[in-house]
Amino acid sequence: MSVRRVVIVGASVGGSRVASGLRQAGYTGSITLVDPDPDAPYDRPPLSKQILAGDWAPDRASLGSAGQWRAERHTAAAAALNPASRVLRLDTGDELEYDRLVLACGASPRTLPGMPRRGVHLLRTLADCHALRADLDRIGSGRLVVVGGGFIGAEVASTARSRGIGTTVVEALPAPLSGLLGEEVAAELALLHEDNGVRLLCGVSVAGLVGDPVVTGVALTDGRTLDADAVVVGIGVGPNTDWLAGSGVALDDDGGVLCDEYCAVDADHTVYAIGDVARCRDPLLRRHLRVEHWTNAVEQADAVVRGIVGPAPVAHRHAFFVWSDQYGGKITLLGRPDPGDDVTVVRGAGPLRRFAVAYRRGARLGAALTVNWPKALVAARRSLDAPSGADDVVAAWKNL
Ligand SMILES: Cc1cc2nc3c(=O)[nH]c(=O)nc-3n(C[C@H](O)[C@H](O)[C@H](O)COP(=O)(O)OP(=O)(O)OC[C@H]3O[C@@H](n4cnc5c(N)ncnc54)[C@H](O)[C@@H]3O)c2cc1C
């Protein structure tokens, strides 16, 4: 069947990349982008980095416009899907017919009980970023509590410290990111916070927010209360799939859209899911993964473009890659650490804390973390998954 109508739900990095990719591939049919965020499409990584810090004007994060891809744009939310009749209904009541539908509707931050509350922030949208910046301006050199020490919490803490704000990070795990990196490596990474004057409280959770209507503190499960002029909550995200209830689209326990290695939701490859919302099958690991990182959304968008315009679909396999900018430096993670990996840490010289970690899977390099060491990342890329990659990369790092 020839494809004449593509509808894309979500106009962020994944959705806009599908639109631009289709045009680049010569697709001449209609493209319709649906997204309720009036500022979309824009990139999210600068929201916790350059834009929050005030180093970039917000329009530097723009990902272009629907006009540029000859696409129709609806500033509305998808509200219901009928895959049998290939109709998407919007919250405006409009109905869109499609030949191919791409679900790129991402994820939304989890909240704490008692939210919304003045002075308590999430950070997902450009509007969130503006609101947080305004509040950081308001509190001057006051006290910020960041709940959650993952990548976004750490970047917010880093930006707040650069503005002279007294910052405390509260993390339920024994060390931030210990679930992903393992405890030993996570403890090393945590030192970055201490080096930069951030108070890091680990192994404790939030019992509740204090102060109403404006937040004045955060009560912890160990009985302490932290005074706060503002609070940022960065405790993870959940897929935006409530609106798919009753559609027959299969979801995992977390609400992620289940799809195959082509990002296809159905056997006919009529509906696809990509990016933060999608739990796609990894053909080598033989399990489904939901990945909440930028490069994954981009790669899956490219895979879907190939699926739609042909000639033959290409299975997507995510080469796990994450970066994070913190305290004037850069952290990168290449490959996904496994709890069974052996770990070798190599330290480098330089003004910033600098080290690299090889996650050894037998003789192979299963994953590598680099901290403030770009050349170590280059060496890791060469060695990842190579038969004797683990020893090779450690030797290369020692010679840098
Ligand atoms: C502050 C911040 C910093 C980040 N930094 C990094 C980083 O340094 N490195 C990295 O790898 N990743 C980073 N990420 C993660 C990365 O931005 C995401 O993985 C990426 O944005 C996912 O893209 P997506 O297109 O799948 O979904 P999203 O970016 O979540 O976009 C989904 C879009 O769908 C729209 N939508 C939702 N529901 C509906 C609906 N019912 N109908 C229509 N539209 C809908 C939303 O409005 C949104 O515009 C960061 C994320 C944030 C929030």
Tell me about this structure.
The chain has helices at 13-24, 50-53, 126-139, 151-162, 178-181, 183-195, 294-309, 374-383, 389-398, and strands spanning 5-9, 30-34, 72-74, 78-82, 87-90, 95-97, 100-103, 107-109, 120-121, 143-147, 166-171, 199-202, 206-210, 217-220, 225-227, 230-233, 237-239, 257-259, 271-273, 278-282, 287-290, 321-326, 329-334, 342-347, 355-361, 364-371. The model has no long low-confidence stretch (mean pLDDT 95). The protein is globular and about 60 Å long. The protein is built from nine helices and 26 strands. It has three domains: 5-108 and 237-309, FAD/NAD(P)-binding domain, CATH 3.50.50; 111-233, FAD/NAD(P)-binding domain; 328-398, FAD/NAD-linked reductase, C-terminal dimerisation domain (Enolase-like, domain 1, 2-Layer Sandwich), CATH 3.30.390. With 400 residues, it is of the alpha/beta class. The strands form seven sheets. Strands 3-2-1-7-19 form a five-stranded parallel beta sheet, covered by helices on one side. Strands 9-16-10-11-12 form a five-stranded parallel beta sheet, covered by helices on one side. A five-stranded antiparallel beta sheet has the order 22-23-26-25-24, with helices on both faces. A hairpin with a 4-residue loop joins β20 and β21. The protein binds flavin-adenine dinucleotide. Flavin-adenine dinucleotide binds next to α1, α7 and β22.
